[in-house]
Amino acid sequence: MDMTNDEKVYGIVIRFAHYKDYHKMLTIFTPKYGMVSALSPGSKRPKSPLRAGSELFVFGNFTIKVRGERKTLSDVEIVDPFYDLRLDIEALACACYLRDFCEFASQTKEDNAEIFSLFIRCITFMCHNKINVRLVRYAFEVKIMDILGLNVVLDKCIECAGEVTKGLFNIQEGGVVCDNCKDKHFSTVKVSPQAINTLKLIGELPMDKLSVIKLNDKIEEEIDSFWSKYLRWHLDKKFRAADFMDKTRDF
Question: Whole-structure pTM over 0.90, yes or no?
């Protein structure tokens, strides 16, 4: 789908790069066109009308002029600048990780509306509801894997569909395994039922209900251990922002 001239595009700035003395090159994530690269002319000047709308994670309506392959920003109506993300290093690191994941996921999806909506909901709750960013991260990961058709099975055995009372998770198959079927699965890791149930609940609850879940360090470490292996196996991708987010725990 080609963008028309002077089209108003709903989106969020997910990257920017300085260009010459006074300009920026923006990457705007949109539900309609996916990732859009556009020049923001003069936006580094103190009095530029585009200055505020060309910052990282500004969400709004962007009017873009199109001349051949070149796209130039002409106006921004800011919906939410998500300013408070800049005041919390762990939330900012999480937002950068979610952004990287969205960029990766958008390469395999023609329709980015679901991914965009999920990203905005997560950013909104981290910024305005001061929710535990780890909960937001897990919820995002479970939901986006489902969007990509890689949904994880946590409520029944992936072999026989029976009840699972002991914690065994198959990394390659993406689901829990019951005690009767464990001998048929060789890539399983031991995980406590509490960790499995916590991740299941995180994936099921709407974003505005996540605050009812209280993560302790032990459960969080367990989820990190098996869930990160699952993501890496199925995506064949390592996100550097995820490592930075993990380091922010010590800040």
Answer: yes
